[in-house]
Amino acid sequence: MSTADRRIPVSLISGFLGAGKSTLLNHWLQQPQLAKAAVLINEYGPVGVDHHLVRQLDHQPVLLASGCICCTLQGSLVDSLQSLFLQALRRQVPPFDRLIIETTGLADPAGVMFTLRQSPFLAERYRYAGLLTVVDGQYGLAQLETEPEALKQAALADALLISKPDLCTEDQLQALQQRLVQINPGATCQTVAHGQAEVALLAQLCPDPASSPRRLKRWLQPATTIGLHGDGAPAHGVTSFCLTLPPQWGLADLLAALERVQNRHGAALLRLKGLVRFPGDTAPLVLQAVHGTLYPLARLAEYPPELTDNQLVFLTRNLTQAQLAESFFEC
C-alpha cells in the first residue's frame, strides 16, 4: 500500500468462540502504539474487553482507559463505520488513526472485507488492512473439522495466532500447526500465550503480497488439503485448486470470466489469488479477490523468476473445479 494512501487502515481479529480474541485485544489496547486506535466489537449481548476494561457499551463510542475509542456494532457495518468517522470529524470523539474490528466467534470475516470495498463512503475513507485469526490451541484441531466458520476464518486469514499453548501437548500443537499450513500455506503462523503478541503484527497484516518475493511465493501456494473426511470429501464443502489462464487472454477476458463466476456462483467463491501476465506485459500483476470482489491490481516492479504466472489459486465452498472451470472458460 502506498504511503500516499491516507485512508484509515481497518484490521480484523477473527477466531472461533473462546479462541482468545478479547485477551489479545485487551493486551494490545494497553500498548502506547494503539493509543489513537478505534475498536469496534461485533458481539452479542453485554460487551466488555476483559475484566480490566469491562463496561456496558451502547451505540455511543466511549474512551477507554488506554485512550482508545471503543463501541459495539449495532445495525449495519456501513452505518457504524460511517457514524464513527463523522463523530471523529465533528470532534465528538477523539480522532483515530486505525480501526480494529473484533468479529463475533461465529462471524464470516469475508462480509467485512466485502463491505469495505462496496460502500463508496467507506471505500474513500477506510482501507482493509488484513485479517488475523486466533485459533484455540486446545480445541482448534477439532473445531477445524466440525465447525465450518472456524475453517473459513483460518482459510481467509493473512496471519494465524495459535493461543493457549500451555493447555495442549507438544504433539497437539504440532498437529494443529501442520493442519493450518495445509489449509492456508500463505498465512504466517505463530504461537502466543495469554494474548501477549506484538502490536507490530498488525502492520504485517497488510494483504499486499508484492511486499517481498518470498511472501509472494508463499502467498500463491494453494492449500494442499482442506478436508479431513476419510472418504476424501472436502470438509464443509471447502476446497482449493488452481486454474491456468490461456496464454492469449487479456485483462478484459479475465474480468469477463470473473464476472461470469460471480454471477453464477456468488458466495461460493471464497477467495482468489494469482500472478497474471498478459501478452505484451513485461511485469505481472498481483490479483486477489474475495467473494468475487476484485482488489485493485498491483503491478510488480521486479518479477521473481522462480514464480509461475497465469496460474490462479481458488478457494471455494460447495463448488468443484469442473463447475468453476465451465463458467470461467466458457468463451
From TrEMBL:
The keyword Nucleotide-binding applies. Keywords: Chaperone, Hydrolase, Nucleotide-binding. Coiled coil: none annotated. Residues 238-331 form the CobW C-terminal domain. It catalyses: GTP + H2O = GDP + phosphate + H(+). CDD domains: CobW-like. Belongs to the SIMIBI class G3E GTPase family. ZNG1 subfamily. Zinc chaperone that directly transfers zinc cofactor to target proteins, thereby activating them. Zinc is transferred from the CXCC motif in the GTPase domain to the zinc binding site in target proteins in a process requiring GTP hydrolysis. This is GTP-binding protein.
